[in-house]
Design brief:
The structure is a single chain. Helix 1 runs parallel beside helix 8 and helix 8 packs antiparallel against helix 9. This protein has 2 domains: 188 residues, FAD/NAD(P)-binding domain (3-Layer(bba) Sandwich); 147 residues, D-Amino Acid Oxidase, Chain A, domain 2 (2-Layer Sandwich), CATH 3.30.9.10. The termini are far apart. The strands form 3 sheets. Strands 1, 2, 7, 8, 9, 10, 16 and 17 form an 8-stranded mixed beta sheet that branches. It has 11 helices and 17 strands. It is an alpha/beta fold.
């Protein structure tokens, strides 16, 4: 049986970030993932530290505008040209995930793909390693601590009893890649709130990829309860939007789906907390790190990974990986990102909770001095905005 200081379950943004920063601090790290790579948004944080910033920046389409529309097909376009920090990059997950994973490996992390963790080794109340299938053979690897970062479907987070599965905070999303999308600006991401059935805060999105064939990532994001009440399946929203709204027809009227539509569930929470147990921490979607309104999670997973690695490194030096010691991870993350999650909650509960309020928000933004400047508009609403 092998022994490592830390095993990280999952090679996505959170696991790769945690692995990189642990290795950078001199910790012996093994990162495992059940997928083989590369596998199938906008990110910047921590990429420079990992030495992957230039590769990430070259991997996709850069945007500096955001379009929001309401149920009346009225819309606004916010422009971030004058605030260059408020820009983003759109690239497919299998591309950027592989860049981030390789950044961790280049930083000194050992990696085993095709390794499916099926159970945690728990002794005297402490997580002491993992049991898994490596190329269909049973493998046990012990460790001083474990980082669980294998997404919202993590069985290990559920095994440890820390995963928040509040049905009132569960979302569903689906996306498809379409070519010949009409009327889109290659530099603008789009969020459409076309009907009351999406509320609160649900939307259709358009993320442009290239203008050669007008290819875009097109998707739907909706609350679990809203989806149930709609009586539709996730894939039904694409033709519904096309056939029932002016902007939907403009975007998808002559568009062609490339491949198939894929859907998934996103679990969120009111406040990210309690992601530590004896011998383990949870990172990213496995720790309910996704936004409780917009649903984004990539950047926050990387931030959670970095903060968790810093706390775990010091705890290992002290020889204390108890829940009480690792609670510092929760405290530091809340101090760093707590205000953001509260702003997301207010956005969900107030600004985007009804179609009427979405319309009011768009009208108020368009009448704000300085419109369409993104920084000035969101500053007028009490804070900045990071895309």
């Amino acid at each position: 049986m092998n022994k490592r200081q830390v095993i990280v379950i999952g090679a996505g943004p959170g696991g790769s970030s945690a692995s990189f920063h642990l290795a950078k601090a001199g910790v012996d790290v093994l990162m495992v993932d059940k997928e083989t790579w590369p596998r199938d948004k906008a990110i910047f944080p921590i990429c420079k530290e990992m030495g992957i910033y230039d590769e990430v920046m070259a991997a996709g389409n850069h945007f500096n505008k955001m379009l929001f529309s309401d149920c009346n097909d009225d819309y606004m376009v916010l422009d971030a040209t004058t605030t260059p920090t408020h820009t983003g990059i759109i690239t497919r997950r299998y591309v950027v995930d592989d860049i981030v994973r390789r950044g961790a490996i280049n930083g000194g992390v050992d990696f085993m793909e095709d390794f499916e963790v099926v159970d945690l080794i728990i002794e005297r109340g402490y997580v002491k390693g993992v049991r898994g299938l490596y190329r269909n053979k049973r493998v046990d690897i012990r460790a001083d601590a474990v980082v669980v970062a294998n997404g919202s479907h993590s069985m290990q987070a559920r095994q440890l009893g820390v995963f928040n599965e509040d049905p009132d905070l569960a979302w569903y999303a689906a996306r498809g890649y379409y070519e010949n999308v009409g009327g889109m600006d290659i530099k603008a991401v789009e969020f459409h709130y076309p009907h009351e059935m999406f509320m609160p805060a649900g939307y259709m999105w358009i993320f442009p990829e290239n203008e050669e064939n007008n290819v875009a990532n097109v998707g739907v994001y909706i609350m679990s309860e809203s989806l149930r009440k709609s009586g539709m399946r996730l894939e039904d929203f694409f033709p519904w939007w096309r056939d029932n709204t002016k902007l939907g027809k403009e975007r998808l009227g002559n568009a062609r789906l490339l491949g198939e539509i894929k859907g998934w569930k996103i679990a969120t929470c009111r406040k990210v907390s309690d992601n530590a147990v004896n011998g383990a921490i949870m990172v990213g979607d496995a720790g309910n790190g996704a936004e409780n309104s917009g649903g984004g999670g990539y950047s926050w997973a990387m931030i959670m990974g970095k903060i968790g690695a810093q706390v775990l490194t010091q705890a290992l030096k002290e020889g204390d990986v108890s829940k009480e010691r690792l609670q510092e991870y929760n405290r530091l993350y809340q101090a760093d990102q707590g205000a953001f999650y509260e702003a997301q909650w207010q956005q969900r509960e107030v600004m985007l909770n009804t179609s009427e309020n979405v319309t009011n928000f768009i009208q108020a933004a368009k009448s704000t001095p300085g419109y369409p400047d993104l920084g000035k508009v969101f500053g007028a609403f009490g804070g900045g905005f990071d895309s």
